[in-house]
Amino acid sequence: MAPTTQVLLKESSHVRTIILNRPKQLNALSLEMVSRLLELFHAYEEDPNVKLIILKSEGRAFCAGGDVTAVVKDINKGNWKLGAKFFSTEFTLNYLMATYTKPQVSLLRGIVMGGGGGVSVHGRFRVATDNSVFAMPETELGLFPDVGASYYLSRLPGFFGEYVGLTGARLDGAEMLACGLATHFVPLEKLSLLEDALCKANTGDPKIICSIINEFSGTPKLKEKSQYFRLKTINRCFSRRTVEEIISAIEKEASKNMDDWITWTIQSLKKASPTSLKISLRSIREGRLQGVGQCLIREYRMVCTVMRGEFSRDFFEGCRALLLDKDKNPKWEPSKLELVSDHMVDQYFAAKDDEDWEDLKLPPRSNLPSHAIAKL
Amino acid sequence: MESSSSTMDRVNFRTQILTRHLQNHHIPPTDLIHTAPCVNYSPPELSEPLANFDTKSLRKLLDGKSIDVIDHMFNLMIQSNLFCPRERGGKVFVSPDFNQSMEQQREMTMKRIDYLREQGAFDGWFSRKGDDGELWRFALAETVSVFDHSLGIKLGVHFFLWGGAIRFMGTKRHHDKWFKPTETFEVKGCFAMTELGHGSNVRGIETVTRYDARTEEFIISTPCESAQKYWIGGAANHATHTVVFSQLEINGVNEGVHAFIAQIRDADGNICPNVRIADCGHKIGLNGVDNGRIWFDNLRIPRENLLNSVADVSPDGQYLTAIKDPDQRFAAFLAPLTSGRVTIAASSMNTAKVGLAIAIRYSLSRRAFSIRPNEPEVLLLDYPSHQRRLLPLLAKTYALSFASNYLKMIYVKRTPASIKTVHVVSSALKAVLTWHNMRTLQECREACGGQGLKTENHVGHLKSEYDVQLTFEGDNNVLMQQISKALLAEFLAAKKRNKPVRGLGLEHLNKPAPIIPSQLTSSTLRTTQFQTDIFCLRERDLLHRFVKEVSEHQALGESKEHIFTVTYQLAEDLGRAFSDRLILQTFLDVEATVPAGSLKDVLGLMRSMYTTILIEEDASFLRYGYLSTDNAAVVRKEVMKLCSELRPYALSLVSSLGIPDAFLAPIAFNWVDANSWSSV
Hints:
A: 3-stranded mixed beta sheet, 9 strands, B: 6-stranded mixed beta sheet, 3-stranded antiparallel beta sheet, 10% strand
């Protein structure tokens, strides 16, 4: 089979530049792409000639996420296990990136959403720029922040991760840098110069790479109305134990001091799938206490439960309303938070009782870094 | 042709093997040259066998329905800079900065409480009802202690002691007035019971309160230096109000110990008139708690401030009570405060878990001495002696944690009829569990060698933070004697009524004495039958001996009080025997809820370890002849065998304890990186 054209490669001495090339679909990740990326990352780790990996994209988006329309089509054909194949490959790729021995620099032009975050945030260097837009918008799609997001969102300052994960808030490049999703901010016009400089330096030494990126970096100012300035309020509300308590805390804030941001926050929580909100919160909370591998294994259980649709078919409804029919009017079921019981939530975190289902098997890593240790 | 090609194949095959041999032979030495000078950290996750049971299910047996609340508290603490997160060896750890001065530590404790309050952690403290409410309160208090005992104590004093006194000793008028400001910390409460001259003996306190009918006020006074209130947590810096325990004197008659509410500071923190406060000073641990001393100089408080659940004083100065017997009144009065012992028992287990998780993880990555020259050094936990030091403590910690859950449940489901059981069980477990914790921490500290001395590695430092548990809320030795007194009373009462003994798990006394096989074998030692039998036999025999000894003294006409002071040896042995049998029973109850499979198997292994190690260590089995010296040797051998059988589960068993990595210590993970030059 001919190698895919959805992922392009550029070789320059010891540097490998991987280009996501599916611009019409905003570089949404297909099974073909994640499989190819996984293969490349495995190969590059073994290859002594490779020292640095640069990940970037063709077109105006870095990556709009996993290609869930394709996944839903597969599942609708009758077998959710085709979907499982996609997620297990994608999550394994995320794990490999999170435990990778060689530095990965991701150049984040344009949209970085869902799975786009997954293929970049786990890597060592994440370079945001003027037109970067980051979001984990899964709860409005009936899904939950996956791709290891329960690991990285839970490690953002305070309870910003809960806020980003539950509301699907859009962050710009300055906000990405401020909260730590990005490690650097390089102005758009300097990005290709940076790329050239990295290729020229031809090194895998993270210190040198960091200082090269620093040379091109700017210090972006947060917008006056940036949500990051609301971190105190966010902490006060999104630290609550349950989704219901979070919403009532925000409503209490609203009664004291109503503004556009609070209105938007309440609306996005009300718009999201109630089941998604509950499982997402639990996932982030568990993720905060776990290693990245453990997070991915848990998220895999969750995503398999979502695809099987036993407790809620919100994922299919969300994809229908937002991606297929585009009526933007999903009918969630259960329709209210109070109808999603703890017992239902528990089921998303349990092993699936299915003969040929098994937990995600992550590749053994000989260099398991401390931060990635999962108490399995 | 054929034959020559097959010969060639064989030759090739042979060459390949030889080449491989030669390569193998050559590569290790060069490898050694490169790697030998440096000890590399290798996470135990890479080398230890994967758990063959579901670690999540095991944690669920420990934390039950409270997992969600516990993890939420962990989340809140990890996410705030007030909890001093710091990166060591690629991981983030939280723990207080013990290098701060006592005053700074106290302020930090208060700030952490403020933070938790702002996040709504205490919302509904008084209004959450039922079993879920009780379990929620316990889970909250225990979890903050995993971060810092001072934080747990400071919260415990405010909510369980001050708040609990208002709730249980007070009535509606107190609830209406104090619940709300207590929940929001507008009022900061403390609990002034202990005095310089009286600790465990509450009924001997000397503070006196009289009533002034003209002004309808009580007047509290400290008549002498030994009556000063002592060790009052919160009093030195922060508390605005206190519950004062005092003798109540009405019309010249002492009506016994009662509790009153008194304000000791105004909202700005100034000490009130007629109150004097001094600091207890620097302590060996718990310096984040501001323990103080209080003197009352005829402090006047309104009549309504008497906590009047069991007795009241009318406006004109008449003493009113429904319980005429002062002994019963006192017992009814203090009974609800048992919650303190419940949290102490539970938090001592959390601390033992922290210690063991750290020491065992370290022993799975730290090596010492090679057995043969040029071989890698041996992992600490692969030494049978190291297994013997840590693994029995791990099995015991599981057993005692199950018992702590049982205590919580009988407290939560308490009825007037079960008060006595709750009192006896909480006394027993408070003593046994806190002793176990201190012993565990000491062993863990030694097992970590020099690293155990570093404050950041917790195991050593926790000893001084938790030592206080052995004596507060009842000195452990006194508690042990109290258990035996209670058992004696139960036994004699049943005999007097000519009825079988019921309650406290003593029903086995009604059956014939169990018979222990004369020759023990490894398989006998692992049967629940034998384990139950020998524990019951010991309890039964010690109780009979105790009854006999007490009655012999009585025959000589000695007073009850005197008799109990001279029979302490048997009393303490019996107290132990009762506790150990109770703990075994709760373990068996937990095991019974688990379906057959690998988890049940590992639980069974730990239960056998728990019983066998007790039989080996507690001298009473040999002293009173439940065990022959021959059988003692069999037991000792079995301990070693059980250690090696538990060894493969060591990592998964400490992972199942549910303590997040951030609350462990650098030596539990990459201690080489944590100590590298670049981290200086």
